Amino acid sequence: FKINLTCYLFVQKMWTFLQIFCLALISCVVKGRQDGAPMEACLTLHPGHSGQPQQYTPLPFDLLVDNPEPEVDDKLKLTIRGKSPEDKIAGFLVQAREKCETPIGKFDVQNSKIAKTIDCPGGVENTATHVNPNLKDEVNLTWVPPSGYKGHMSFFVTVAKDKDTFWVARTTETVWYY
To answer: For the whole prediction, is pTM greater than 0.85?
Structure first.
């Protein structure tokens, strides 16, 4: 039984390449999204975590709005934080919406190490998302209403504890601008 050395080395190199390729592919799948929600999430607010189902259990995070009855042109601060010390935030996606429709206003990101804005259909900087999967105790976001806005809106919030555990489009109390 004779083995062609050239063919043998070629097959070994191909096998090594295939193993490295498969490891790289698996690591991409395991890591998930590290730089925020994809543009496809603009409508549904679903993070698209490899077909994982969302949680329907009570949200273990507080969604706090600093002023439930602001005046025209007042900015709002939204705070997301765990209800217990174990509840950390790995990812988030936030929009302000009027009647469950398209996002309104824009976010003014104060800490670019935690959040960034994306432009979803209908506006600019109208959605805030995480910039990395590092666990966060709390997220603070500043929202700027459209100029002269009068009406009511709510924040729609998706929060992820990890790649497999997330809650989609949970809402804050309604905020009225007079």
So the answer is: no
